[in-house]
Amino acid sequence: MNAMISTATPSTAYNFAYLDEQTKRMIRRAILKAIAIPGYQVPFASREMPMPYGWGTGGVQVTAAILGANDRLKVIDQGADDTTNAVSIRKFFEKTSGVATTTLTADATIIQTRHRIPEKELTETQVLVYQVPIPEPLRFLEPRETETRVMHALEDYGLMHVKLYEDIATHGHIATTYAYPVKVEGRYVMDPSPTPKFDNPKMDDCAALQLFGAGREKRIYAVPPHTSVVSLDFEDHPFEATKFDHACALCAATHTYLDEVITDDAGGRMFVCSDTDHCEERRAEGHRGDLLGEAPAAIAGSAA
Amino acid sequence: MYVAVKGGERAIDNAHRLLATKRRGDPAVPEVAHAQIREQLTLAVDRVMTEGSLYDRDLAALAIKQARGDLVEAAFLVRAFRTTLPRFGASEPVDTGAMQVARRVSAAFKDIPGGQVLGPTFDYTHRLIDFLLEAGADIAEPATAPADDAPMPRVTDLLGNDDLIERNPPGDPDAPVGDLTREPLDLPADRDLRLQNLARGDEGFLLALGYSTQRGFGRTHPFAGEIRLGEVELEFVAEDAGFAVPLGTIELTECQMINQFKGSATEPPRFTRGYGLAFGHCERRTMAMALVDRSLRARELGEEAKAPAQDEEFVLMHSDNVQATGFVEHLKLPHYVDFQAELALIRQMRREIAERQNVAPREQQALPEAAE
Amino acid sequence: MTGQPLLTAESVTKFYGSRLGCRDIGFELYAGEVLAVVGESGSGKSTLLKLLSGQLEPSGGRVLYRMRDDVTRDILTLTEAERRFLFRTDWGFVHQHAELGLRMGVSAGANVGERLMAVGWRHYGRIRDEAETWLERVEIDATRIDDRPTAYSGGMRQRLQIARNLVTSPRLVFMDEPTGGLDVSVQARLLDLMRGLVADLGLAAIVVTHDLAVARLLSHRILVMKDGRAIETGLTDQVLDDPREPYTQLLVSSILQP
User: Fold this and answer.
1) I need a labelling partner for A299 at 20 to 30 A (CA). Which of A184, B328, C100, C205 fits?
2) What is the mean pLDDT of each run of 10 residues along chain B (372 residues)?
3) Within a domain: C141
4) What's the whole-model pTM score?
5) Which of residues 184-203 of A touch B (CB under 8 A)?
6) A115 touches chain B (CB under 8 A)
7) Which domain holds residue C234?
8) B55 and B77 housed in the same domain
9) By C-alpha distance, which of A50, A56, A185 is closest to A129?
């Protein structure tokens, strides 16, 4: 797929970016509160959206509330711009707002994402909007919302470390690979959404504003620019980001998150960048991976 | 290659076209009109209106058609439409005591002022497939009786006159009623929010919970005090007019359960209430709702709350089928980034175990199990 | 130790509606002292334990506790945060049913380490060392540190619960029928262990029990409850050897008969 910047004409039947202005104001108030208390989950009156709960309704509402006519929107799912759900959400905003969309990370002013943080370093002029299924990092240790809210209020986080202790006792190391809990600005423990822990270090001191929307659970939270985000760990078992043994088969990158692609039924597989835009950009710069010549077009795209 | 995921735009367009074809079915068979659904599949329409929280028979019928008969999907379509509608205000509370009754039964009294009215019910039909329907049999005119202006007071009001049942929580009639489509649910929730949540909740979920209370998971000793179905007048006070303007009538089903009593050293014992209300004809749903409403009052009535139906957070957080179906079905979305992370971990763990097994047995003993 | 009591109960009273839970209970407990509360089931002793530990709000009276900074506080006026902090540092609570006091889904090491992590320990190796030390102190083989309590016997679970409570060196431990439901031989071993720990650590404890043998072995003083009231109190040996109240005489004779 080629990098693209396109402009569409908005559909007139609905308000700009679908939501009515009153709802947008309500969401913006929640966002402001979230920015004021980094990592704190602000309840908001999530609306029914024309896509199902669990498919990005929280992120879509946050994006709709902050989107302006001059924004350039990028939507990714699993790091890629062309996965079905990313396409569907991008089309939704093209149709309802008519804003320009892009696949180039550097060109985007707002990036809505599911499960990844782009490889390219973000800047002060950008906002990263995460889609969040379960915003509560303590949920699978304590199922009750009434109790977890008290635990946050009292900074009662011992249980979180019990889980990490148990991982080490059982496996010899912390066995959480995604949705790896972090502590924000030394206060609130936060779920970074199901991004792989590979991406956790990018959240710390990030120049861009990071907003998190959970539609079904009706929560918004935020990490303001240049805020400390620390992955929980033990002094003698420090947090380690996932490392790959391979380089990207297409662009030869060695420090990116890789997707494993099964190429045949005889155990053949290749590893390629999950961030498609980043991979294409590297190839355009002349980086060549081992399998660039032989990869199927569906994987390599037209930039091969 | 999983083209359906990586292939993006064209795949989506093609899927939508195929869906439209499947919805239409065999073109040799006449297409069903939404008016036919509205008139002939009325109970499906009623359920979709109730769970969609919008009283609009035409819209619900159209949603059922669009959803290929999937009622949860249809309720979702109605909800997503409802959320964009402007709010002009709230209607006056409807008076179900003044209902134009089409059906009314009480299991608590043999006879009641205004009488029992059986109305349109499956209750005493034999569940035998009626093959005549296949041919579209003619139906006999329904029996009618002259209109009767005799009042039909609610059974609970009759009990209330003797102070035998708790008063409806007095409350402040002018206090605003909560709206969980406009404010996030905050626990513990008051009864207005609980009832709103149940009224929109999934019928199957309510039914199972109500049933569980009857089987002993939080017994409430219910009697169906009254179930009534009929039309009520809807009124709206326009701010400039300053008086109530009738908007028309809507059909409602109401169920009032009479439950085990409660008293204290200073209060004489009284029956307690459980309440159910739904758009259209939704009898099973309102009865289940009334059972669950009563169960959820355990805390307020000082009862021990141990059963699932008494657990407010459990019930309220899981009753909504639009939320539930979205989250269950989101597992269809790609998760391969996270799955890749898990794959890497499981391979690492297997490697570590293999390495440990290759170490000489004596050294292995010296290694503490959890050392990295 | 200052001359001030650690915990003071003043006319503690609890009604459930019109039903009496307990009435006008008053006593002082000093650091290192063990008080046994005895009585039949329904006498109000479990209610009293909940009131003393701030888990239940009294209808009348108050409970004072001298905090680690030597300031005496009414436990009802503690904030939720202070109360929780007290419960994971300076207080312990040993339940009759160990499952209520343990996390059955995580290992013994995590059970003992939880309080340490809650107060900020962040070194896995040191948490584990401390957990091993405590397992050994309660006579659990340290090689069982990664087993879950579900794999433990009843007596071991109870000892694990005690270790989990004592790891932050509390000054006061509440015990609710700590030997209830255990075999006689297991009971004896547990009592012996508890007596040793209480003496070694200089713990104060309030032990609710229906078993006068437990009271005799563990406690310095005893409080006999009947129908929600304290009918007799004094030094344990004195009360048990020479009971004043007819009810206490009945209790002693019915239990201490050979």
Assistant:
1) B328
2) 52 92 96 96 98 97 97 96 86 92 91 88 88 84 80 89 82 80 89 95 97 90 94 90 90 95 74 96 97 93 87 96 95 89 89 82 45 36
3) no
4) 0.83
5) 194-198
6) yes
7) 7-99+172-253
8) yes
9) A56
